[in-house]
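Sample intake — Sugar-proton symporter
Collected from: Tanticharoenia sakaeratensis NBRC 103193
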Amino acid sequence: MYVAQQTSETSGPKPHSPMLTNVIAAVAATGGLLFGYDTGIISAALLQLTRDFHLSTMSAQVVTSAIILGALFGCLGAAPISDRAGRRRTVMVAAALFLLGTAMVASAHAVWMLIVSRLVLGLAIGAASQIVPVYIAEVSPPHRRGQLVVGFQLAVVLGVTISFITGYLLRHDSWRWMFGMGMLPALILFMGMIFLPNSPRWLAMRGDMEGARAVLVRLRGSQEAADKELADIEAAHDVRAPWSEVLSDWVRPALVASVGIALLCQLTGINAVLYYAPTIFAGAGIGEQSALLTSIAIGVAMTVATMFGGWAVDAWGRRALLLRLLPGAVISLIVLGAAFVFGANGGIGIWIKVVAIVAYTVFNTGSLSVAIWLVGAEVYPLSCRGKGTSLVAASHWGADFVISLTTLSLVQMLGAGGTFLLFAAVNAFAFFFVLRYVPETRGHSLEELEARLRNGTFAPVDRQHAPQHAAATLTHG
């Protein structure tokens, strides 16, 4: 047990703990704002880029998906950096990459420059998606962890919405301004992170218990609360683990649940709508201006759904939220697909499509998009949390890469209706996946969730298998 020692750093008045935690979450979540803006702005910019650079369907998909390929490498590279240098410094690296990538893309004069600059932005997005939710989760108290980590996703959808509004307002100006607007939040993120503390759990993992306690006292506002939380952290006996630990039997339920949600978050089609809705709707005869306005409606729907999800993950629970909203996504996509299949192109037909796609956005974003980063940051033991969340982010970006590279081709092959009906089937599968593999994590500390992994009571499965799981994990305890 850790014995509390009075130090000069922890004596005297302390910052009010909820305020400091809120500041940390808000500044770190600026990485989510950049994440959303830089992925969403291509939706409007692509209409101009296609004309200026004479892009074919395939080259348009390559320019769009380059940022996703970069994100895939960025999230994998962020794991060892975050374990060695710390969560805070890794976020600062991501902010520097955001600045570099934004400057490059805004000054691009050839297709290859667009692709390379979006690869750099992807590195930043991948790193941010891997480390920001972990950093927020590790500084948050259990009763506020859901709300604060979902704040990262709220920042993402706010960034997407801002990108849609910016794209509409600048539709008659250069696409360079659309991309260049990302410089300001990148500067805010970099400068803000300089003044924030390291994660107390990362400090404890490195053996700096006194430093971890000092940070916890500042975060929780009392020495007693800090000592109790540090004792729980120390009792877990976590040290930095190799990659093989993430694949071990006792961690596998967390891997299946988190990676499954990450894959399904993309394979259910939300980013296909995000990237290509204006292109699909303009191709259906709605017109560019109306298509861009539809994107703004989608962005607003994403924001409202995420705000609702931020409340529901703590009021209902993560698992309950997913199971209640996913059926709505299935029904909305069936209606949308049918409207395209049966050629509902008149006035009421257009409204059916718009209402259906907005409804799908609400149900899908309010469930899977809200849960992905939260569950990924919660379920892994401290010893391999950085590596586990890297796999979550890599799965997300890998699936996103496939979706961004194939959506327009799917629309050409199956039609818009067939494509949306395919996504409806994947959303239905997601419901049954959650029912079988995703546990409820609401109200449990990170250390309690690790204990459930060790004793075989993590996954919502037949408890007759729990004794075997528990016996298999005794050597880890």
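Post-analysis note: The longest helix spans residues 385-437.
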